[in-house]
Write a structure and sequence with these properties.
This protein is α+β, with helices and mostly antiparallel strands and about 375 residues long. Helix content is about 30%, strand content about 30%.
Length: about 375
């Protein structure tokens, strides 16, 4: 393949001109060919971009959306968090604030709007910002506009977690996986496809026939790869196989399938090790070590749905600690008191999601 830079294109064009003619820079022939060579080089650049953006494996942004829509698979858009809140009147009794009341998080730009009531003094708030930003806060809220008789408002839990718009890499992986796996009539691929596209679902595992034919167990984590709340589990259950009409094909589950929705248990791992440090104390690197280890554990949770078991490797934790500046070496690492790796194997009876517990550094 020949080069397509301006200089290489111009050289090829000048080489095609007889040598007895003046081809030096500034000559009539040179000045006539140079602008054409620049346009040809630009055309080659555009052609290279076009080639890159027309393949599913390399396209990005809107071009990736276009390629995926050839298979009718849209990108998952950002969705707002729906949070559970409690409201009390000035006498500390349950109080139903009017629908449409707006609240803000102290010292933050995050705001919520009251969408519906779910019981005396309990309501559902929708975050006015899209994405996971609305998931994190729990605590007191401030009314943006005065609400008569309102004494206290606070977020107590999550109804449906918000999620960010799907990244290019996550979108590409999902499209490729969808094309590889053929979903049909309520098979595992079918459940992973439809349940995985419910707003707030980050990943899932499907356990077919876990209590006999027609029974399906779905274990779900949220968009931030945390265990889901019981309230969100009910939302998923009602979308897949409503409790009051189970097995009748009212949701997305086929007729005859009785679906149970659960979530993995948090499995904390206490980590202890000795470290040789370069002119710093263990306390000075504590936060950095915890963050580096937590990044490794997040990667484990992000891959949870693609494997029957999760291995927590001591060597990978040592590697994470060694990435912290001023850490010279690590020795004597233990996980939950043991010196070996940990294997979290999921079954229909129990599923596990690894989290960092305590991190103790002997410097």
């Amino acid at each position: 393949m020949f080069e397509s830079t301006f200089s290489s294109v111009l050289k090829r064009m000048l080489d095609a001109v007889p040598n007895e003619l003046d081809k030096r820079q500034g000559s009539i022939i040179y000045n006539a060919l140079a602008p054409a060579a620049a346009e040809v080089a630009q055309a080659y650049i555009a052609l290279g971009i076009f080639k890159t953006q027309t393949h599913l494996g390399t396209a990005v942004g809107g071009y990736l959306d276009d390629r995926a829509m050839d298979f009718s698979i849209p990108r998952m858009a950002a969705s707002p968090a729906f949070r559970i809140a409690r409201t009390l009147d000035t006498n500390s009794k349950p109080f139903d604030a009017p629908a449409g009341s707006r609240f803000s998080v102290p010292e933050s730009s995050v705001t919520y709007i009251l969408r519906e009531h779910a019981g005396a003094g309990v309501c559902i708030l929708e975050c006015e910002q899209q994405g996971v930003i609305g998931n994190a806060y729990t605590g007191l809220l401030l009314p943006i506009f005065p609400v008569s008789n309102l004494g206290r408002a606070e977020i107590t839990g999550t109804h449906i977690p918000g999620q960010d718009a799907e990244t290019d890499e996550a979108y590409r992986s999902r499209v490729i996986e969808r094309l590889r796996q053929k979903a049909f009539g309520g098979n595992v691929a079918d459940y992973k496809r439809f349940v995985g596209e419910i707003d707030g679902v980050g990943d899932l595992k499907v356990f077919p026939a876990w209590q006999g034919g027609g029974t399906v167990l779905i274990s779900v984590v949220d968009a931030e790869y945390n265990p889901i709340t019981p309230d969100f589990a009910r939302v998923i259950k009602n979308a897949v196989d409503p409790e009051d009409d189970t097995g009748n094909g009212v949701g997305i589950a086929p007729i005859g399938h009785r679906v149970t929705v659960t979530t993995p248990e948090r499995y904390p791992v206490d980590i202890r090790f000795a470290a040789v440090l370069d002119n710093v104390t263990a306390g000075q690197i504590q936060t950095f070590a915890e963050e580096s280890i937590a990044e490794y554990f997040l990667g484990l949770r992000e891959g949870w749905g693609d494997t029957p078991s999760v291995w927590i490797y001591a060597s990978r934790i040592i590697e994470a600690v060694l990435r912290v500046p001023r850490v010279v070496s690590v020795s004597g690492l233990t996980l939950n008191g043991g010196a070996g790796d940990i294997n979290l194997s999921d079954t229909s009876a129990r599923q596990y999601l690894p989290f960092v517990g305590s991190v103790t550094i002997n410097g």
